[in-house]
Structure prediction request, 375 residues.
Amino acid sequence: MMVASAAILSGVALSNITQSTCEQYPEHEEDERERIRINSKLPLTRNFVADVVEVCSPAVVNIVSVGNGSFGGMVASAGSGFIISKDGYVVTNAHVVTSSGDGNVVVTLKDGRKKSGRVHSMDTQSDIAIVKIDDKFIDHPLPTIPFGISSKARAGEFVIAIGSPMQLQNSASLGIISATARHASELGLSNNRAEYIQTDAAINVGNSGGPLVNLDGEVIGINTMKVKNGDGISLAIPIDIAAVIINQLLQYKRVVRPYVGLRMANIIPVQEETDRSLSFFRNKKKSSQVPPMMNVDKMQVVVLDVVRGSPAHLAGVQTGDVVLNINGKEVGNVKDVLSEIGLDVGKTIDLTVRRNGDHLKLTFTTAPETARPTK
Prediction:
């Protein structure tokens, strides 16, 4: 078999998980775009960008954290964030606050008022953190930004990045969504299985942790990074994914990820590829012709290893099984499996696999990652 890529299904698996508190779009809508226009919270005007910024920016903050450096001295880092509750919970990137040795940060509101805060919790794997503004500095309910539904976003939609690039607070930049699900592997991040919203809205140093908002004034992403030496290629964590992390951090101050005990890979059957290559060279007529590319439409997901005692092992999954279907959805690559499992512990997973020509249905429940055997 030809191995195209491999993934270990035991850590984070990011998927489009719609936040339950958000309004759901109705199914079978005859004209979705017209419905969105009519029901838009911010009807479009000639100054539609300014309207969105005016509504959202009061809830966007600047965050500065200070800690001890590796070789002595003090190290300061700054970024952005946005308020998600009237009592002062703020979402930002974990890398914005990791330098805060004692957990203390300074939060600056749009009007310039500075508030003391502490790092409530963080998850470095997803690069999301929660900061809590000190209650004694909150004299009235703080402004917030509602969450949108990032899985409904489409390439080409206008978006606005708000934050404090280069410590220039209250900055906004307009762009479009370039891609709705840019996988980390496409960016050369081999140890990262995350997916990002790609945008050409300017995201620079200091924008990290700020909101990427749609024209309804809703957060659809958390601005995270830009591609080095790439103009107009910026990335944001989809809010559907972030919402799951945020909820866990608020409740437990940590993220418990699902564990199933599978190692899988995308493969293309060798015989099929061999036949295609031989056919090409046998029938080659012009030197300008090039060999055929791998036929990704024929890609299969094969189980490379099953951890003994894991949920998958107890359900009967075996090495060499070809995964055809998961929870009623056809599987074309490992990413499909990861997305369906998501971040839910205790979720029932129905797998249909092919083994020795037979189709078998196997069922297991995702366990917390703490159930993973230690070496």
Summary: Residues 93 and 217 are 20 Å apart (CA to CA). The two ends are 29 Å apart (CA to CA). The longest strand covers residues 171-183.
